[in-house]
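# nightly structure sweep
# worker-07 picked up a monomer target from the shared queue
# config: single-sequence mode, recycle default, output format = structure tokens
# input follows
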Amino acid sequence: MQQGEPEQQERGYIWHTAIGLQKADGLTTSDYLIETANKNINGDITLKEARKLIDDYYTAKPLSNSDTTRIDEADKVSARVSEILAEHTFSFSPVEYITIHRRLFEDVYKFAGKIRNYNISKKEWVLNGETVFYASAQSIIDTLDYDFAQEKKFNYKGLSIPQTAEHIAKFASGLWQIHAFGEGNTRTTAIFIIKNLRTFGFDVTNDIFAKNAWYFRNALVRANYNNLKLGIYATQKYLDRFFANLLLSEKNELKNRDLLV
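# output follows
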């Protein structure tokens, strides 16, 4: 049977998540996007029609070169996140991960769906301007293949839900640290993890990703940063708190200032 539109409650969740995730990269959506999303949530238009309205809006009214808010990116990617989350499909593979990136950022980044072929560093607020060491361009494909192969072999049987949450957090951390793409890694990883969690039977319909996207990114940073000279060690505890709230309905305070080194 062909999949149709999600129910209204699920449409509200996926739009809330899609819009909130843009904050992982410091982006904010427009009033037009919110208006379009509400039309879909209320059943006036389909998700496909909402996506087309957003794409057509920026085709007819492109932003000037002086606009640095990237509001068009936030709007376009939000619509695409909503489409992807509405689909009850998934394949646990590097191909799926790369395809999600392509679908999210097609016509936004020239390198959408392409593994980066250059090394990168990024100044992080939570590290006072320092950077995480990401995978080298030459090792990305092999590292992705290795991480996915190891996770596929992992047996969750016998683990408690808290132990399962910790393991999933560890996988997410490793996947993000590879930083396979030039931009958009956090949003791509978040969507992949949400869809993967569904295959475990988790109904991730709360507001954790929507309200704490920047915390999620900062927690990933802290899980992959060491500076032994300054007594700073990589720690997964912040990411574990995030996933405990997401999967166990815990009420840990998720404050970004607590992660600042």
